[in-house]
Amino acid sequence: MTHYLLRRCATLVAALFFASIIIFIVLQILPGDPALVILGPDAQADTLKALRHQLGLDLPVWLRYLHWIGGVLTGHLGRSTAYDSSIANLILQRIAVTVPLAIFAMLLASLLAIPVGAWAAARRGAVDGSIMAVTQIGIAVPDFWLALLLILIFAVHVTWFPAGGFPGWWHGTGAALKALVLPVVALAVPQAAILARVTRGAVLDVGLRDYLRTARAKGLREGAILWRHAMPNALIPVTTLMGLQFSFLLAGTIIIENVFTLPGLGSLLFQAIGQRDLILVQDLVLLFAGLVILINFLVDVLNAVIDPRLAQNLGQGLQ
Fold first, then answer.
1. What is residue 86's three-state secondary structure?
2. pLDDT band at 317 (very low <50, low <70, confident <90, very high)
3. What pTM was estimated for this model as a whole?
4. Cα–Cα distance, 40 to 286 (Å, whole number)
5. Which residues pair with residue 85 across a beta bridge?
6. Given pLDDT bands bounded at 50, 70 and 90, which one contains residue 313?
7. If 113 and its partner were Cys, which of 126, 192, 309, 312 is the partner (CB 3.0–4.6 Å)?
């Protein structure tokens, strides 16, 4: 297991390094001049030159990359030109909305999907068919359309929840959680539909194994067989998908945060792109990419803990 963790850590570092290079290159080749966007089309040439020098845009590309990645590694993320504020402070303020939103959505999706998927696998027939039909509808529904529908029903008609905005955690946990209810549901429902179908398929696949036939021959109840024997062995594909879904939820907050006017990382990235705040866009995209890579790393480690044979097989394959 130690060798497996070391290899996975090396892969994690390499993936982050190559992601930073790709992000930097892509943003450098985009058309447009950040200095011209900031000062406007009527800016004087000497003023533009001075601002480009201040932003480091007159340096060679390789040197700009080293300055940027060095600042990221030391915690000096630079200063936003659009907000005239420290990027580190902006991220710390906004991450307190985005990360809880994604975590609560993933928890809700898991609590809905895993029991429903396992139940569908254990109740073949009309129950299974009905559940799969409902999940198919859930997959087909776009999260932004569901968000608008939830606002119309629960914020406009019955006024149980706010239609948008975020009061801040300092104004009370209850008010903050209430503002996140509709965004969490809008993000969780489509992901729960996908996860339920994968859980059902994983449980059905495990149900054909010999050790479950032996458990049934010993007279164990179907409920005990399902939750004590089938589910633990069906967790590998389920946890792998959950890791991918959590990554998708982080990216999906860009749309949902704009629908609900939440001050999170997604809306900050959207605004930074529109304002051509290059350094802020670079830092935010790298943060999102880093979170996705880190989540996949943690999922791989969790799968190796659930089934140590995965780490052993990888070690044998590399010998």
1. strand
2. very low
3. 0.76
4. 28
5. 80
6. low
7. 192
